[in-house]
Design a protein that fits this description.
Layout lengths: L1 E12 L7 E3 L9 H16 L4 E5 L8 H9 L5 H17 L5 E12 L2 E17 L5 E19 H6 L6 E4 L5 H11 L1 E2 L4 H16 L4 H20 L4 E2 H8 L7 H6 L8 E2 L3 H8 E5 L4 E5 L7 E4 L4 E4 L4 H11 L1
Antiparallel strand pairs: 1-2, 1-4, 3-7, 3-8, 4-5, 5-6, 6-7, 9-10, 11-12, 13-14
């Protein structure tokens, strides 16, 4: 992978009635170990953030001029710093229509990876800090908080230009900030959220049917492999392609998973967005109340853990050694 361009601008408003100030960077950052490490740190923070949503650009050209600007930049009509400056003025205009207060840097990074070009946009703030100078006296400083991003977006430029995808845009919302999130959706021109819960439910229904005729040990291993692969894709903010998943799921003489999917009445999309929480619930059963918390692999049910629905009780066998030690100690 390689970064082609990195540029940063700043948007600032001190109070709800104050004007929105925009500071434009006329040039890109020099590509160096320091600037590239900064973007990598932001990408690492992106990977850890849950709740990503997927979609595409709005078709309303009047409300969303971004695709036109991106096309002009990609065709060489203007450099990235000028294109992002237009983008920032659009963000400033939309922000002026709200009463929010904000002090944030817009950091844009154009990256080329194996799958094609992509454009990152991170909204990141700075934090105050103490510093000891060369004279050993305490002073004030600020640092870019790469460990925390307010919001972010990733545009898969190659997928967007191909015209065959409806989820080339990945979006990270502001936690608990509905109005800010709606503003940023307008800035990016985001629309058509993908129902990842429904897509994951469709996938797991097919996986369950696929593993039903397997020996239990093989079936459990297959389910775990499928979930592990999908969780890795979810963490990376990537979709799951059935063709790639089939290579993970099909082993030990089992029919090819992608072929099996085509025989099912309800089929997941060929390219789907996994829902991490739903995947974890598929391989783990958990629950809690004020007095008790319990979690175990779904494969334990029926053997190590037996549920009696009539009496609403669980019988646990093969108790974990650490739990057994604690129980014996407590009984004494």
């Amino acid at each position: 992978m390689a970064f082609k361009s990195i540029v940063a601008h700043r948007l600032y408003r001190a109070s709800p009635t104050a004007p929105v100030e925009l500071t434009i960077n006329e040039g890109c950052w020099p590509l160096s170990g320091k600037t590239e490490d900064c973007v990598r740190a932001l990408k690492h923070t992106w990977l850890k953030r849950g709740g990503k949503i997927y979609g595409r650009f709005s078709d309303d050209i009047g409300a969303n001029p971004l695709p036109g600007w991106l096309k002009g930049w990609q065709e060489g009509a203007q450099p990235i710093e000028r294109m992002t400056a237009q983008w920032m003025k659009h963000a400033q205009t939309l922000f002026a229509q709200t009463e929010n207060v904000l002090d944030v840097y817009f950091l844009f990074a154009h990256e080329v990876v194996e799958g094609g070009d992509q454009l990152w946009l991170f909204l990141v703030g700075h934090e105050p800090a103490f510093v000891i100078g060369g004279d050993l006296q305490l002073g004030d400083s600020v640092y870019l908080d790469t460990g925390s991003i307010l919001m972010a977006a990733k545009i898969q430029l190659t997928e967007w230009q191909g015209g065959d995808s409806a989820k080339y845009l990945t979006f990270v919302r502001a936690t608990g900030e509905k109005e800010l999130t709606e503003w940023f959706e307008g800035v990016v021109g985001f629309t058509d959220k993908v129902d990842s819960t429904q897509q994951t439910e469709q996938l797991l229904t097919v996986v369950e049917a696929y593993t039903r005729q397997m020996p239990e040990g093989v079936a459990e291993q297959t389910r775990e492999k499928v979930v592990e692969y999908c969780l890795e894709q979810s963490k990376a903010g990537e979709s799951v392609k059935l063709e790639s998943l089939s290579k993970v799921a099909s082993f030990d003489g089992a029919p090819e998973f992608a072929v099996f999917v085509k025989t099912q009445e309800v089929k997941p999309p060929e390219d789907l967005i996994p829902h991490a929480g739903q995947l974890r619930q598929y391989v783990r059963i958990s629950g809690r109340n004020e007095q008790m918390s319990m979690s175990f692999a779904s494969g334990c049910l029926g053997e190590a853990v037996v549920y009696d629905a009539e009496n609403d009780s669980l019988t646990i066998k093969k108790i974990p050694p650490a739990l057994k030690t604690r129980l014996l100690k407590h009984m004494k």
